[in-house]
UniProtKB/TrEMBL annotation:
One Pfam family here: Y1_Tnp
Name this polypeptide is given: Transposase
An MF annotation (GO) of this entry: sequence-specific DNA binding
Record-level GO BP terms: DNA transposition
Transposase IS200-like domain residues: 8-127
Length: 174
């Protein structure tokens, strides 16, 4: 893997986490709220520092760092825990009309991964990009803020509830 897409200690990173098969999971408020809840946990208990974020239907973007400099470890733990929680929420949700299909797809993507792994929720890579200058930070911030606008979800970035552009976000930003 290129050095360009690796976490290194004490960096500020633009990170994209994508659901396997680009499956639209976060169209359900319950699952997007779980992402917010788990990010807040990582902020409060694992030293994650989130400066910008956006949760789209099948992926999320963060500009983040970690107090101990090990953002890669925090992201790994976040992905592992949220994968299990969201799959549990899907499985236990009697209102989830796509339950069988979603669980089938997460099993399908887990095949060949690990014998212990029944489901795979997240793609393995995060493509962390080290933000080495103010110019890169501003460029990625604009990208994050305008993602729901370009997707046609909202007309103004601040209207999207699952974004740092929204002043009423429930995520505890740094």
């Amino acid at each position: 893997m290129s050095e360009k897409y690796r976490f290194h200690k004490d960096g500020l990173f633009f990170v994209t986490m994508t659901v396997v098969g680009w499956i639209d999971v976060f169209t359900r408020k319950k699952y997007a709220d779980e992402i917010i809840k788990n990010l807040n946990y990582c902020i409060e208990h694992k030293g994650l520092e989130v400066y910008e974020f956006c949760i789209m239907s099948n992926h999320l973007h963060l500009i983040c760092s970690a107090k101990d400099g090990e953002v890669g470890k925090v992201i790994r733990d976040f992905k592992s825990f949220t994968a299990k929680e969201i799959i549990r929420l899907i499985d236990e949700n009697p209102q989830e009309s796509r339950k069988e299909w979603l669980l089938y797809m997460f099993r399908y993507f887990a095949k060949g991964s690990s014998p212990k792994c029944e489901f795979q929720f997240w793609q393995h890579h995060n493509h962390p990009i080290w933000l080495e200058s103010r110019r890169f930070i501003l460029q990625r911030t604009r990208y994050i803020w305008n993602n729901p606008v370009k997707a046609g979800i909202v007309s103004e970035p601040q209207h999207y509830i699952y974004s740092s552009a929204n002043p009423d976000t429930e995520l505890k930003l740094s």
